[in-house]
Amino acid sequence: MKAGQIVAPYHIEIIDIEKPNISDYPDGTVMIKTLHSAICGSDMPHFVLENLPERYPLGHGLSIHEAIGVITESKSDRFKEGDEVLALPRHIGACAEYFLSNEDVTIPLVEYDRKDCILMSQPLGTVVWACRKLGNLINLDTVVIGQGPMGLLIAFMLSNLGAKTVITTDLFDFRLDVSKQMRATHTVNAATEDLVEKVKDITDGRMADLVVEVVGHQTETINTCLKLLKREGTLLAFGVPDDEVYDFHFAEFFRKNIKFLCSVGPDVQNDFPLAMDMIAQGRIDVSPIITHHLPFTEVQKGFEMALHKKNEAIKIVLDY
Fold first, then answer.
1. Nearest residue to 93 via CA among 1, 30, 5, 14
2. Contact of 105 with 116, CB cutoff 8 Å
3. Which residues contact 224 (CB under 8 A, 6 or more apart)?
4. 207's torsion region: left (phi>0), alpha (psi -120 to 50) or beta?
5. Mean pLDDT throughout 159-180?
6. Residue 231 and residue 294: Cα distance in Å, rounded?
7. What are the distances in angstroms from CA 156 to CA 124, 165, 256?
8. Does the pLDDT at position 49 exceed 90?
9. How many Cβ atoms sit within 10 Å of the Cβ of residue 145?
10. CB–CB of 2/96 below 8 Å?
11. pLDDT for res 125
């Protein structure tokens, strides 16, 4: 079977490998023939960060983890051959024609005419997990920093949960245009506008009750969040960190009595099904974030498009 493999920084090759033998794996394992997968921002460090030479090549199929497919072999009492599922990869990444998963992190698909939209249940499920931690959002002023795929999903969820304002910010206008489709009430291009002043103006000086940091992979924006929050506001860190230690403005955080939450997840058996239902029932339209489809064999091009924002790419789905 064919699989993608990162062989050096910024370089993925499509290679031929042996299809895994499911009998070598524990009970509960399922073999899945991939239908669609998608590139996530949390995959990017594997692509761009330089590892020690002896670490290359990285594991087969890594680090793609958003995937749906059809079970072809099963050691699970809960799933049988032919079942269509969303599943988190185990033992081999999902950038491959077949991957392995376990019944604990596998969910049956609901009926829906667009499988690529149902695939978005995986990232949306992580948003559901984060929102479980936030409590009542009705009539609150909120800011979402970063309007990549995750930030766009978060903006829609905050609107659904009753936020008074959903102010989104990014450095690219094409993302902010999509943000308006995802129910942002206001958009701010932080490359050309003073974000703090804009939030102050939009909220009539109140500032934000909640700020969600969805950029990650750098250390600057977490301190920007502190400037946007009112006293006793809440900061939710959702963006994936690359750095172990941040230069964090603790005194400002302390004196404003800010609550600091982090979220990485989700609770698979609860959050993925709910996310899937929300999409299938039309309670959230994820289609605006899906901007490109590519054959899985063009995964190198996909990562380059995502990294460099080529062709106004937001969410890139790989087809098998």
1. 5
2. no
3. 145, 195, 196
4. left
5. 98
6. 46
7. 10, 11, 28
8. no
9. 24
10. yes
11. 98
Collect all residues with Cβ–Cβ distance below 8 Å to 200 and sequence separation of at least 6: 207
Give me the chain's average pLDDT, please.
Answer: 97
pLDDT tens by residue, 306-319: 999 999 999 999 99
Tokens at residue 48, please? 């761009």
φ, ψ (nearest 5 deg) of residue 262: -125, 155
Q: What is the pTM of this model?
A: 0.96
Distant-in-sequence, close-in-space partners of 204: CB < 8 Å, separation ≥ 6: none
pLDDT of residue 51: 82
pLDDT in tens, 75-116: 999 999 999 999 999 999 999 999 999 999 999 999 999 999
Could you report the per-residue pLDDT of 257-296, keeping only the tens digit for each?
999 999 998 999 999 999 999 999 999 999 999 999 999 9
Q: Could you tell me which of 319, 308, 299 has the C-alpha nearest to residue 61?
A: 299
Distances (CA, A) of 4 to 31, 106, 108, 150, 164: 17, 22, 25, 24, 44
- What is the CB-side half-sphere exposure of residue 196 using CA atoms within 13 A? 9
Residues 189, 177: contact at Cβ < 8 Å? no
What pLDDT was estimated at residue 262?
A: 97
Question: What is d(CA 210, CA 167) in angstroms, rounded to the nearest whole number?
Answer: 10
Residues 109, 121: Cα–Cα separation, whole Å: 10
Q: DSSP class of residue 46?
A: H
- DSSP 8-state secondary structure symbol assigned to residue 220: S
